[in-house]
Amino acid sequence: MKTPGTFHDWVFEAIGTRWTITTPAPLPDTAVASVGAEIERIDLAWSRFRDDSMVAAMARTAGRYPIEPCDRPLLDWYRRLYELTGGAVTPLVGGTLAAAGYDADYTLRPASSIPAAPAWDDVIVGHHEALDLREPVLVDVGAAGKGFAVDRVAEIVAGFVDDYIVDAGGDMVVSPRETPVRVALEHPLDPVRAIGVVALDGGAICASASNRRTWADWHHIVDPRTASPAWEVLATWVIAPTAMEADGLATALFFAPAAHLRGHFDHHADGFHHVTIRRNGSVEHTAVPGLELFL
């Protein structure tokens, strides 16, 4: 996927995925440094795969953990997702994922017993200026955290150029433009193929698929209420104003009916745009701009 005319792709690896930032010309060194610093800050706060992160500290000790003001929308969004999905999307799923084998060491060996995630209000006393925890808990913000990081990076890039695409492993923010960008929808069973394309003239698109991280009889999209993988849905894509929102909703569609979720948003007549592919082969989608399906 390329922008019309001249462009420059800055490609790098960070927080477990491949990033591509596309701009008309290379970003200045100050922008590059700011992007790197912000990604490191997010990783140091929210990664459950490093021992020195705030998340690792929360897994060891209960108490009060101050939250940066710029990170508070992420926790507010998680609370809303938790309520919209009846507890299926929760930042408290980390212990369930780790016991299933998706742990800091990537053992990919499920334990003999996999615990369900605790209820939000049983563990989290408050989440605004700080996370107040009644007991140690392993937090995982994977359902919306990458989208959040994409938004934060896009905000930095927008301070230097008007025309940009920030893409982190397929989750992307596109600057407003007159000529839409055609974005391929990766086939959930074959990463070298596409199941369709959409046209994006600004905003964000994020995807979630059960084939991205699989092991034994597990994949990384887990219902924390039952401590088991979600099997009915194969892949989802959501278009929304922000990547954080699109990322979280793409995960929520694995657990909650699209009609229910769309009724809580008013970005346009459909609430928000999405494409959902179920394991039985059926496809559900809204009137996504420029949507072409090759199924």
Question: How does this model look, in words?
Answer:
This protein is an alpha+beta fold. It has 8 helices and 18 strands. The strands form 5 sheets. It has an 8-stranded antiparallel beta sheet. β13 and β14 (228-229) form a beta hairpin. α6 packs antiparallel against α7 (243-252). The longest helix is centred in the N-terminal third of the chain and has 18 residues, at 29-46.
Features:
295 residues; alpha+beta; eight-stranded antiparallel sheet; 8 helices; 18 strands; 26% helix; globular
The separation of the N and C termini measures 21 Å
Instruction: Report the count of strand segments.
Output: 18
What is the overall silhouette?
globular
Strand content: 25-35%
Average pLDDT taken over every residue: 93
Q: Which class of secondary structure composition applies to the elements?
A: alpha+beta
Quick overview:
The chain has 295 residues and is an alpha+beta fold. It contains 8 helices and 18 strands.
Task: Summarize the helices and strands and which ones pair or pack.
Layout: E1 8-14, E2 17-23, H1 29-46, H2 54-60, E3 63-66, H3 72-84, H4 94-100, H5 120-123, E4 124-126, E5 130-133, H6 145-158, E6 165-168, E7 171-174, E8 181-187, E9 190-200, E10 203-209, E11 214-215, E12 218-219, E13 222-223, E14 228-229, E15 233-240, H7 243-252, H8 258-262, E16 273-278, E17 283-285, E18 292-293
Antiparallel strand pairs: 1-2, 2-6, 3-5, 4-5, 6-7, 7-10, 8-9, 9-18, 10-15, 11-12, 13-14, 15-16, 16-17
